[in-house]
Amino acid sequence: MGMCTAPIQGHRTASGRANCPACGGRSRSYYGGYGAYPTYEPYSGAVARGDGWSSVGATARSTRPRWSPLASSLSYTPAEITALTPFRNSVETRPTAPDFRDVFLCHAWDDRRGVARELHDMLESRGVSVWFSEKDVALGSPLMREIDRGLAKSRIGIVLVTPALLSRLRSEGIADKELSALLARDLLVPVVHNTTYEELREVSPLLGSRSGLSTAENAMHEVAAKVAELVSP
Fold it and tell me: What is the reported pLDDT for 21?
């Protein structure tokens, strides 16, 4: 039997292993005192990098965070992975109860029947439970009390940043109170839509300092899919 060529040629691909005179006929396993375990190759040409996998020589979007399923077709920028990793850590470590929601959706009143409803429906279609004022605040119920309950029983919060929300923040309305509670808990993922982080920072420097997702880089259905992966068990 020939000598293993791994030190020279490497066995990072199936073809490299097959061409090795020592390992070519072996099954794809690791051998040791505790038995055999199958090797794991995320995809061809990939290398481990931080909290995700990055394809060598590919674009900045060819990355996969550790919580993204192998079958997922989504790609993330390194900045998105960095921004979302703390929220994933919170999802994994925070205790839950049967009546907990995956997401608290904070939005401007003007968006409740438009883009906020659209995002809500996309999330729920992917199995994400969402606290949404349009369906979770009963007629006649104290709004702020219901918001407090919703915040306390949600794993993370999403704020849908739109021109309407920026206008509401300038007037310090209900959305501003929701944001203050979410920011205090450090569980807030901004989703910027039809505006920019630069415009957000002019209105709310604290919120604008948080990184998240943007529909300038992802279609809304991709944003919903990424949030669904973020809060998945």
Answer: 59
Radius of gyration of the chain (CA): 22
Q: What angle do CA 135, 138, 139 make, to 5 degrees?
A: 120
CB 194 within 8 A of CB 165: no
**What's the Cα-to-Cα distance from 112 to each of 31, 60, 115, rounded to whole Å?**
57, 34, 7
Question: Hey, CA dihedral for 202, 208, 209, 211, is it positive or negative?
Answer: negative
Give the phi and the psi of residue 84 in degrees, each rounded to 5.
Answer: -90, -20
Q: Give the domain 79-231 fold.
A: Rossmann fold (3.40.50)
Alpha carbons within 13 angstroms on the beta-carbon side of residue 155 total 27
Nearest to 158 by CA among 226, 72, 77, 74: 226
The residues that are catalytic are 178
Provide the strand spans (E) within 34-182.
37-38, 46-49, 52-55, 63-65, 101-106, 130-131, 154-161
Block means of pLDDT (10 residues each) for the chain, 233 residues, are 49 51 47 35 41 46 83 93 92 83 90 95 97 83 75 88 89 65 75 94 86 94 97 91
Contact present, 2 and 22 (Cβ < 8 Å): yes
Residue extents of the structural domains in the chain? 1-41, 79-231
